[in-house]
Write a structure and sequence with these properties.
Low-confidence stretches: 1-6
Strand content: 15-25%
Mean pLDDT: 95
Largest sheet: 7 strands, mixed
Number of helices: 18
Oligomer: single chain
Structural class: alpha+beta
Shape: globular
Length: 711
């Protein structure tokens, strides 16, 4: 080895140190890797395979990837927060570096040659650039991989990379286009089909239910009732759907009208009991007579709106419960199932299978418990459960509604002299395993029922949740930021892509434009005055050049440009965005420019895919999306009532990747969501002179903003 050994192990390699758990060599000269992160359409298994191939010195094509499985895979917690490369990728990098070193030691010992001259190329050992007729596979008998990682070898230097930085093809695409990838298409021998008869609203209780007519329907195997939980199982899927629909007519429920007034959600947030935390409090103590402005920004409840409804398979046999799920938290789901079902942990096995992507906590975990509850009634027979479209919209955990109040002042020199910020909303993480009470939906309806636990936030040092990106990344001499975490949850909420960063960055970056206008400065110049981080400055300058930003450009009422910047979580990737909008009957985002610095780029095409997806999803949230409800029920139960961006409305996207091979790799998927929303708002203001502070930017909210600002 030419590199100096480092006494460092990535977090999840330290907690799952066995080398053989992540990598094994097959007789056909392929390599199987077992990452702890799941594929949900973000291309992560391909990026981690690319890292493994690079460090091992084998061809990318010979790497096979095993989905996360609680019987064999390392436990790397949830796949979330744009941290898969930082966590799972780094664990695989150090694992493979150590494995390469062990094989080189074995080759050196067998041939009595100095290890310092040895390298691996396409799985073959070379000494002083001469092949030694030895490969990994010939040396398998000499190397024991059933040992713990101990920092015995450092990964390759950037100058040695052969594969990192190349746009190698994704490993998951072929199976997807041939229909073999998705859990929804999975068939087990003798499999039955289930559907759940959900209550009509979150707090509804079952009064009575008549089962006989449904039991007489063709193919019906059983009706399962436990408190307000009702499931039907049939031989075929369409029979289960018919039985579910029929059962809905046989049930009587009591309901409570306890949801807040959707039209007054902002005031609702202010009046709820909250857990308050000061995120930052620095003050110059100077008396400010500078120009002071105040603004309030809000976002509605947002749905994950997965294109495919959630699905799971469960199979109770030989005193084991096997579950296939598209959860992003496979180990936590196993633990939660064992706890709710009162099973020993080693009797529950959860295997990941790809499903509809959502980037957050949708119904994937809940439907796994649904399937398990039905499967436990059929010893030896697997049961498949898929939610209906209405189930997904009514029962998935939503991204919470939030409000951000900002006040700030700027002096005659164009410097911000005070910044006061307060946030209201629920915390954001209700994934399984985060609370002592069950976090899975059916558990709240079983038996006498129980109150759903409140979501939690990660500590701010780990990225936070509601408070994510709440503290501005700018240099502000006088700044106070308070988070009011609401302690009631009338509408079920949990993690949605970027968590609180979406609204917090939208608010901060919109407000920066408002202050720039007061200071009579160009928005980019104004931001640069308050930044010291050279990487932040670089992305802003890059996107300015990329979009041919015209200082002082003012829209004509129909056309405008807006800029925004953020460093995700204040420790992640850097993103600067410029949006171009056209004001027609509705707001149309014509083009989005983005300059991104995510450190070392593993796979440029994969990074671009992630950023493009983030831009489009954020544009959809910003322009259109809002969960609707009355005082009792969720009312947006289909695509007509919850519209998303259509293909014809997708903006052109132009991305500039600023590769920094000497910097650690950072995730990218969530980093653009906040800047995109703010850049659109700033572009609308540039075009129309109207400041949109309440999302989404529908005709209704635009007219309301025009009315307010004309007073």
């Amino acid at each position: 080895m030419t590199n100096q050994t480092q006494s460092f192990l990535p977090q999840y390699l330290a907690s799952n140190p066995k080398l053989s758990q992540r990598v094994s060599f097959n007789k056909d000269h392929t390599v199987t890797i077992r990452p702890g992160k799941v594929e949900i359409g973000q291309g992560i298994i391909s990026a981690i395979a690319q890292i493994a191939a690079e460090e091992l010195g084998v061809q990318y094509s010979c790497i096979q990837v095993t989905p996360v499985d609680t019987t064999i895979s390392p436990n790397e917690a949830s796949t979330s927060g744009s941290r898969s490369i930082q966590e799972g990728g780094e664990s695989m990098r150090y694992t493979c570096a150590e494995i390469r070193h062990l094989f080189l030691e074995a080759a050196a010992a067998r041939l009595n040659l100095p290890i310092g001259l040895m390298k691996v190329r396409d799985g073959v050992i070379y000494s002083d650039n001469n092949p030694l007729e030895l490969s990994y596979w010939e040396l398998l008998g000499d190397v024991n991989l059933d040992v713990d990682a101990n920092s015995r070898a450092a990964p390759k230097k950037q100058s040695e990379y052969q594969l990192i930085g190349s746009s190698l093809p994704r490993k998951d695409i072929l199976r997807k286009i041939t229909g073999a990838a998705f859990l929804h298409d999975m068939i087990l021998p003798g499999m039955l089909h289930g559907r759940i008869v959900r209550p009509p609203s979150f707090h509804a209780k079952l009064i009575s239910c008549e089962e006989s007519a449904v039991l007489a329907m063709p193919g019906i195997k059983k009706v399962i009732r436990d408190g307000s939980f009702i499931g039907v199982v049939a031989e075929r899927e369409e029979q289960a759907i018919k039985a579910m629909l029929a059962m809905q007519h046989q049930c009587k429920w009591s309901e409570e009208s306890v949801l807040p007034d959707m039209a007054d959600i902002e005031d609702f947030l202010y009046t709820q009991k909250s857990e308050d935390e000061i995120l930052k409090d620095v003050s110059t103590g100077l008396n400010s007579s500078d120009s002071l402005i105040t603004s309030t920004f809000t976002r509605p409840y947002l749905a994950h709106a997965s294109i495919g409804p959630s699905c799971a398979l469960a199979w109770w046999h030989d005193d084991y419960l096997e579950v296939w799920s598209h959860s992003q938290s496979i180990y936590a789901l196993r633990d939660e199932l064992a706890k709710i079902l009162n099973l020993d942990l080693d009797r529950v096995i959860v295997r990941h299978a790809e499903g509809a992507g959502c980037y957050g906590h949708n119904g994937a975990d809940d439907v796994a418990l649904d399937a398990a509850l039905l499967a436990l009634q059929f010893d030896g027979v697997p049961v498949r459960v898929q939610w209906m479209r209405e189930d997904e919209f009514a029962w998935e955990p939503f991204g919470p509604a939030m409000a951000v109040k900002l006040s700030g002042s700027v002096n005659a020199s164009g410097q911000i002299t005070s910044w006061q910020e307060e946030i209201w909303g629920n915390r954001h993480i209700g994934r399984p395993g985060r609370q002592s009470k069950p976090g899975l939906l059916a558990a709240w309806h079983m038996g006498e029922g129980m109150q759903a636990p409140l979501p939690v936030d990660m500590p701010i040092a780990m990225g936070g949740g509601s408070q994510r990106n709440a503290v501005p990344y700018y240099e502000l001499p006088d700044c106070k930021v308070i988070n009011h975490a609401i302690q009631t949850m009338p509408i079920r909420t949990s993690a949605l892509r970027a968590l609180g960063a979406y609204i917090n960055i939208f608010a901060i970056e919109s407000f920066m434009d408002e202050l720039a206008e007061i200071a009579q400065l160009d928005p980019i110049e104004f931001r640069l005055r308050h930044l010291k981080d050279e990487r932040a400055i670089a992305v802003l300058k890059a996107v300015s050049t990329q979009a041919n930003w015209q200082v002082g450009f003012k829209g004509d009422g129909t056309h405008g440009y807006g800029v925004a910047f953020a460093r995700y979580k204040n420790v992640g990737n850097y993103a600067a965005v410029i949006a171009e909008v056209c004001i027609e009957e509705k707001i149309k985002v014509k083009k989005v420019f983005a300059a991104i610095d995510c450190g070392l780029v593993i796979n440029p095409n994969g990074v671009l895919n992630q950023i493009e997806g983030g831009i489009i999803q954020s544009a959809s949230w910003t322009l259109k999306e809002q969960v609707r409800f009355d005082r009792t029920r969720i009312t947006s139960l289909n695509w007509e009532e919850y519209p998303i961006l259509t293909f014809s409305e997708v903006p052109q996207v132009e991305i500039s990747l600023m590769n920094r091979p000497d910097e650690p790799p950072l995730g990218v998927g969530e980093g653009v969501t906040g800047p995109v929303a703010a850049a659109i708002a700033n572009a609308v203001s540039n075009a129309m002179g109207i400041r949109l502070r309440h999302l989404p930017m529908t005709q209704e909210n635009v007219i309301s903003a025009m009315d307010e600002q004309s007073v």
